[in-house]
Amino acid sequence: MFDLNEMVMAQEVLVMPPYSGELFTLTYGALVSQLLKDYENDAEVNKQLDKMGYNIGIRLIEDFLARSNAGRCNDFRETADAIAKVGFKMFLGIVPVVTNWSASGDEFSLLLENNPLTDFVELPEGHSSLNYSNILCGVLRGALEMVEMEVAVWFVQDQLKGDNLTEIRLKFIKRL
Amino acid sequence: MTTLGKQRSHILEKSLSKGKLEVNLGTYALLFSEIVQYCQNRVYTVPELHSKLSAMGQQVGIRILDILFLREKGYKRETKLLNMLLFIQTVLWKALIISIFECSFVTLCSLIKDYIIEQEPLVNKFISVPEETGSLNCAAFIGGIIEAVLNGCNFPAKVTTHWHKGTTFLIKFDESVILRDKQVEGR
């Protein structure tokens, strides 16, 4: 997909522009507000965001594998670490905390202290069921599906709704 | 809506982020591709697609305008046309580099520094980037950002996006802008 030269050039560009993250945040905001105009209710918007995230995820995983040299994960705990420490770091520049494991080890939470998607964002009244960053759920689901794992992903807490942290929960369902 | 134990802090009470955040280019490219696809599914013609992308670009433009002036210019706005264009050429362009280039995908990133701004007599200004392999859809989005920035600074203008030596944004100012600028210059 990329040749080496192109990758090196891409990396050079990555270091340079200081606002790239903001442009990203604002672009995402424009998308969400467009969706809110186009769809009837928050649930539909959540669904649409999830779908877009899924589309992104199934393509993003390629990039992830190509650049990270990550080997196969032996268990779900390794997967969790790879998602948080490599995946999130690589694509969003943050490292969420992996925590709240279920007893059986098939469920965990990602805690995000500052979510780059929600800079500058305030949820207006009457959108309490909107999961603004729902695209992340889709991305995780899509990306993991491509490495033969079916997972369920959902938001538990959201800073936009007044919680202290943003918490995303992942549950392993089955190996595909 | 404050529920017990949950105190929602007002966004204006938080300090403005320093803009240090950086995201991976691929992330942006993928997000943008989803946006383009989404818009494409909802329109029939290319001009419609352009205006849709431009509308979304404007959403970004009006917001980025505030951040840039606040941070780069110490709250001062530009009042002269030429300075405004310089602002777009330097500050805004720097902020947008990634997005312009993401559309052409990785191959053209070294060319992005060579963008040309041709200045014609005050009515028409061309800002062009070297040839892009991507479609000009992306550029319409940028066009929208430029338009919103200009309008936000009270330089009413229409920005259209064309193919001309790559992508060209044609900025057509309202007559009042030209008149006002002449008056300011004349003083």
From TrEMBL, chain A:
<dbReference type="InterPro" id="IPR007194">
    <property type="entry name" value="TRAPP_component"/>
</dbReference>
<comment type="function">
    <text>May play a role in vesicular transport from endoplasmic reticulum to Golgi.</text>
</comment>
<keyword id="KW-0564">Palmitate</keyword>
<dbReference type="GO" id="GO:0048193">
    <property type="term" value="P:Golgi vesicle transport"/>
</dbReference>
<keyword id="KW-0449">Lipoprotein</keyword>
<dbReference type="InterPro" id="IPR016721">
    <property type="entry name" value="Bet3"/>
</dbReference>
<dbReference type="GO" id="GO:0005783">
    <property type="term" value="C:endoplasmic reticulum"/>
</dbReference>
<dbReference type="Pfam" id="PF04051">
    <property type="entry name" value="TRAPP"/>
</dbReference>
<keyword id="KW-0256">Endoplasmic reticulum</keyword>
<comment type="similarity">
    <text>Belongs to the TRAPP small subunits family. BET3 subfamily.</text>
</comment>
<dbReference type="GO" id="GO:0030008">
    <property type="term" value="C:TRAPP complex"/>
</dbReference>
<keyword id="KW-0333">Golgi apparatus</keyword>
<protein>
    <recommendedName>
        <fullName>Trafficking protein particle complex subunit</fullName>
    </recommendedName>
</protein>
<dbReference type="GO" id="GO:0005794">
    <property type="term" value="C:Golgi apparatus"/>
</dbReference>
<keyword id="KW-0931">ER-Golgi transport</keyword>
<comment type="subunit">
    <text>Homodimer.</text>
</comment>
<dbReference type="InterPro" id="IPR024096">
    <property type="entry name" value="NO_sig/Golgi_transp_ligand-bd"/>
</dbReference>
<keyword id="KW-0813">Transport</keyword>
UniProtKB/TrEMBL annotation, chain B:
<dbReference type="Pfam" id="PF04051">
    <property type="entry name" value="TRAPP"/>
</dbReference>
<protein>
    <recommendedName>
        <fullName>Trafficking protein particle complex subunit 5</fullName>
    </recommendedName>
</protein>
<keyword id="KW-0333">Golgi apparatus</keyword>
<dbReference type="GO" id="GO:0005783">
    <property type="term" value="C:endoplasmic reticulum"/>
</dbReference>
<dbReference type="InterPro" id="IPR024096">
    <property type="entry name" value="NO_sig/Golgi_transp_ligand-bd"/>
</dbReference>
<dbReference type="InterPro" id="IPR016696">
    <property type="entry name" value="TRAPP-I_su5"/>
</dbReference>
<dbReference type="GO" id="GO:1990070">
    <property type="term" value="C:TRAPPI protein complex"/>
</dbReference>
<keyword id="KW-0931">ER-Golgi transport</keyword>
<keyword id="KW-0256">Endoplasmic reticulum</keyword>
<comment type="similarity">
    <text>Belongs to the TRAPP small subunits family. BET3 subfamily.</text>
</comment>
<dbReference type="GO" id="GO:0006888">
    <property type="term" value="P:endoplasmic reticulum to Golgi vesicle-mediated transport"/>
</dbReference>
<dbReference type="GO" id="GO:1990071">
    <property type="term" value="C:TRAPPII protein complex"/>
</dbReference>
<dbReference type="GO" id="GO:1990072">
    <property type="term" value="C:TRAPPIII protein complex"/>
</dbReference>
<comment type="subunit">
    <text>Part of the multisubunit TRAPP (transport protein particle) complex.</text>
</comment>
<comment type="function">
    <text>May play a role in vesicular transport from endoplasmic reticulum to Golgi.</text>
</comment>
<keyword id="KW-0813">Transport</keyword>
<dbReference type="InterPro" id="IPR007194">
    <property type="entry name" value="TRAPP_component"/>
</dbReference>
